[in-house]
Each structure stands twice: as C-alpha cells, then as structure tokens.
Amino acid sequence: MSVRHVLAAPSAAHASVQPIAADAYELTAGRLVGTGAALVALAGVVIGALALARSTRRIGDGRGKRGAGVALVAGLFSVVIGVVNLAVADGGPGTGNGVIGGALALALGLIAAVLGRLALVRSRRTAQPADHTVHLSASE
After folding, report:
1. What is the largest distance, in Å, between two alpha-carbon atoms of the chain?
2. Is pLDDT at 110 greater than 90 in this prediction?
3. Cα angle: 19, vertex 25, 27; to 5 degrees
4. Share of the chain above pLDDT 70, in %
5. Is pLDDT above 70 for 18?
6. What is the pLDDT of residue 4?
7. Do 43 and 111 form a contact (C-beta atoms < 8 A)?
8. Secondary structure class of 1 (helix, strand, coil)
C-alpha cells in the first residue's frame, strides 16, 4: 500500500458523506412535494381572492362561503406541508430537497388562509340581513 492510497482514503470517505446536489431539471421527491404544496397554496390564494370579492359584492349564490372554506383549508394544508418539507430538508436551495417550493408553499399558504378567513367573516356579516327599514302599515 503506497502513501497515496493512505492519504486519499479519508478524502474519498469525506466525499461520500456529502449530499449530492440534484440536477437542475431532475424531479426529486422533495421537489415534487414542495411544488405540489405551492400549487395548492396558489389555488387557495386565487379561490380566496374570488371568495372575498363575492362576499363583499354579493355576486353568486353562495356569497363566497364555500370558496372561503376551500381557501382556508388549502392554505392551512399548504402551510403544514411547507413547514414539514422545510424541516426535513437536509440541504439548501438547489439540492433537490424542495426548499424553494416549501418556502413558497408556506408563504402562499399563509396568504390563502388569511384571505379565506377574511372572506368567511365578511360572508357571515353580509349573510345576516340588517333590517333598518321602517315598515309602515296602512292603519297608522
């Protein structure tokens, strides 16, 4: 055994422990989970914004309650999946662990949850009719 083999062995062992960065276009499990959660969160933001617009303008038959609930659930789901994805990632952006998708899911999920909650509050407020009209009868 030569001196080169002895000196090269620790560096070879060190190289095998380092995480290998995934290719830029390779779809890993972490990227799939992060991207899926981000897409669900984006759908929640769009649905929440539409539900908020419906709850304030009274357009549509549901006044935005169903869309508000969907946005709230999608937002909370995305926040949970984004946090779990970020917690189990053992590398930074570009390693194939879905760090960017998880962070995007977390941010968009929070926005979707807030929009869904606002739409629920406003749709409940507008669903109860405020009867401030004075009814006059013919006998008065």
Report:
1. 116
2. yes
3. 70
4. 61
5. no
6. 61
7. no
8. coil
